[in-house]
Amino acid sequence: MPVLICFLWGIILIGVQTSLVAVLPVYLPFYNLLIPYVIFLSLFRPASEALPQIFWVGLVMGMLSGAPSSVYLIVFIILFLLFRNIKTYFQLFDSFLFVILIAVGVVIEHLVFGVVSLLQNFAVEPSLFTAYVVFIHFIWAVITGPLLFAVFSRAFGGMDRYQARRSAKLS
Amino acid sequence: MFSKKTVVSAGVIGLVILIMLVFSFHYLRRTLFMDAAGRAALFIVAPVQNIVATTIGFVDGIWENYFFLVSAARENEALRKRLAEAVGQVDACREIVIANERLREYVGLVNEIPYQTVAAEVISRDPSPWYRTLVINKGSDSGISKGCPVVLPDGIVGHVLTASSRYARVLLLIDRNCSVDALVQRTRARGVVEGTAGGRCLLNYMPRQEDVITGDIIISSGFDGIFPKGLSIGYVSKIIRRNTGLFQEIELAPFVDFERIEEVMVIINPQLHDLEVN
Question: The whole model's pTM is what?
Answer without folding.
Answer: 0.70
